Amino acid sequence: MKTAVRYRQLQRQLARLGYLTQGSVFERAVGQQGSRFVWTRKVKAKTVTVALSQKQFQWLNKAVANQRQLERIVAQMQTLSRQILFETIPGVPRRKRLSKKVLGLI
User: Fold this and answer.
1) 34: which DSSP letter?
2) From the CA atom positions of the chain, what is the Rg in Å?
3) Confidence of residue 104 (pLDDT cuts 50, 70, 90)
4) What sign results for the dihedral spanned by CA atoms 8, 12, 17, 18?
5) Where are the domains of the chain?
6) CB pairs under 8 A, 24+ apart, for 5-8?
7) How far is Cα 5 from Cα 84, in angstroms, rounded to an integer?
8) Could you tell me the pLDDT band of residue 68, with boundaries at 50, 70 and 90?
9) Which 8-state DSSP code applies to residue 37?
10) Taking the model in full, what pTM does it have?
11) How far apart are CA 103 and CA 101, in angstroms?
């Protein structure tokens, strides 16, 4: 697939993402100490833990999944951007061709 076409597909995927949040959510087993539904995240290098209702847990669980999807999509877009740049815009003369590793394509 052409890189520009793939890039546009990723842009459309970004537009469909819903709410975003960083951190992790988890559900403790029944009978385990503490709140059953929990959200944790880092704030100024400290872990912050928040007790949640079941509905808040479900909503944040989706938002965390969306955040992770966002990070994957952005990483792919960065790689494609570099690939498009070095394939289409003339650069300085080089004795040796730049490797994929140097360009961050692998």
Assistant:
1) S
2) 20
3) confident
4) positive
5) 3-103
6) 6/76, 6/80, 7/77, 7/80, 7/81, 7/84
7) 11
8) very high
9) E
10) 0.83
11) 5
CB-based burial, 27-38: b 16+ in 10 Å, e otherwise: eeeeeeeeebbb
SS3 for 63-101, per residue? HHHHHHHHHHHHHHHHHHHHHHHHHHCCCCCCCCCCCHH
Choose among 1, 3, 10: nearest CA to 70. Answer: 10
Q: What is the DSSP letter of 105?
A: -
Which tens digits make up the pLDDT trace of 36-52? 999 999 999 999 999 99
What pLDDT is attached to residue 1?
62
Q: What's the rounded Cα separation, in Å, for the pair 64 and 24?
A: 7
DSSP 17: -
Amino acid at 11: Q
**How many residues in total does the chain contain?**
106
**pLDDT band at residue 103, thresholds of 50, 70 and 90?**
confident
C-alpha 95/C-alpha 59 separation (Å) is: 54
